[in-house]
């Protein structure tokens, strides 16, 4: 069997079977977006890494090196944010062709430095390598979190409501405009959704505030799509969830692009991915307090989009008419080896 048939997440599980059990100082190991390590101090150490591969994650003609630099930092910071942590130190590895312009590297580091500084962290090292094909930018990020503020995927409980910050689907709408430049939409709408795709922002402050409430049971960032990332929470927590499509926060700009592209904005919101919003579960009795505090302290809204219904691992999309679809069998969001 080839990995294209196997899929990304089955491959991760298979890799895990070849590794010994984690030592006692590993709080969370392989299988999550962030490793959590007990380094015998007052805080846990967080470790994550992510790569941007040319013609898989980005098209060089459609983005600037500066935008790419910002994005590679933001997507890693987003993983730290979803744990309630603070980013600290980054290592960057570049695999470049010999004909890559020095100005590309200059722009890339200008973007990375701006984004890492805004997150309160620093780039402290890395590696350079030549490559014969598409370029690769890989970033590893270390951070910290107090044990009492750590939020993982595996704490969702039956009866929890499912919430998400901000809006969904705009990154996918931006990608649609990049891939189909002949589409004509109002400049303001086009600029907004393209920016959400090319230079996403991590909900770092929001993640720390949510963690500080002590009321969040499970959390992940929306990188693979709401269906995919809620599926990760459900599998880790051994629970089943339902999403209410009419409650998904979709902006007028996303709706407009979908209309012009003759696509379904709800589907973009469910499985488009790369929105980097925070997806979390909480006791319904605490939701008004959580929403009020988040908006008061950050200006960011959050929306109830579903609930945890009981034991299981499936994610259902349930409309007001009672119709449902089972998305629990296999990935419903981005999968590197099944995509396309």
Q: Indicate the low-confidence ranges by residue numbers.
A: 327-331
What is the general shape? globular
What's the total count of β strands?
A: 13
Residues in β-strands, percent: 15-25%
Rg, rounded, reads: 20 Å
CATH topology of the largest domain: Phosphoribosyl-aminoimidazole Synthetase, Chain A, domain 2
Distance between the termini: 18 Å
The share of residues in helices is: 25-40%
CATH class of the largest domain: Alpha Beta
Largest sheet: 7 strands, mixed
Topology (SSEs and partners):
Blueprint: H1 3-6, H2 8-17, E1 26-28, E2 35-37, E3 44-53, H3 65-81, E4 86-96, H4 102-118, E5 122-130, E6 136-145, E7 161-165, H5 170-179, H6 187-198, H7 204-213, E8 216-221, H8 226-237, E9 239-243, H9 252-261, H10 265-271, E10 278-282, H11 287-298, E11 302-311, E12 315-318, E13 324-326
Parallel strand pairs: 4-5, 9-12
Antiparallel strand pairs: 1-2, 2-3, 3-6, 4-6, 7-10, 7-11, 8-10, 9-11, 12-13
């Amino acid at each position: 069997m080839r990995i294209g048939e196997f899929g990304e997440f089955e491959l991760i599980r298979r890799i895990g079977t070849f590794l010994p059990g984690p030592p006692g100082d590993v709080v969370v190991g392989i299988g999550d977006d962030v490793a959590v390590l007990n380094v015998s101090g007052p805080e846990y150490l967080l470790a994550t890494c992510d790569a941007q591969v040319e013609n898989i994650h980005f098209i060089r003609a459609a983005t600037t090196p500066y935008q790419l630099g910002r994005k590679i930092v933001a997507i890693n910071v987003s993983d730290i944010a979803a744990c309630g942590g603070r980013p600290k130190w980054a290592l960057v590895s570049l695999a470049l062709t010999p004909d890559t312009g020095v100005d590309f590297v200059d722009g890339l580091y200008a973007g990375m430095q701006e984004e890492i500084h805004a997150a309160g962290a620093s780039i402290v090292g890395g590696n350079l390598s030549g490559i014969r094909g598409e370029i690769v930018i890989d970033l590893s990020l270390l951070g910290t979190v107090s044990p009492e503020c750590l939020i993982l995927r595996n704490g969702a409980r039956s009866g929890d409501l499912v919430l998400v910050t901000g809006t969904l689907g705009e990154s996918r709408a931006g990608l649609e405009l990049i891939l189909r430049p002949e589409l004509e939409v109002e400049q303001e709408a086009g600029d907004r959704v393209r920016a959400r795709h090319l230079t996403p922002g991590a909900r770092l402050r929001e993640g720390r505030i949510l963690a500080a409430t002590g009321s969040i049971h499970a959390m992940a960032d929306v990188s693979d799509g709401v269906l995919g990332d809620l599926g990760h929470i459900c599998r880790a927590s051994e629970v089943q969830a339902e999403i209410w499509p009419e409650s998904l926060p979709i902006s007028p700009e996303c709706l407009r692009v979908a209309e012009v592209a003759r696509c379904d904005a709800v589907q973009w919101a469910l499985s488009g991915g790369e929105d980097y919003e925070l997806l979390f579960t909480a006791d319904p009795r605490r939701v008004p307090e959580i929403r009020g505090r988040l908006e008061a302290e950050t200006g960011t809204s959050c929306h109830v989009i579903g609930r945890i219904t009981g034991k299981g691992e499936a994610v259902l999309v349930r409309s007001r008419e009672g119709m449902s679809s089972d998305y629990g069998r296999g990935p419903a969001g981005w999968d590197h080896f099944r995509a396309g």
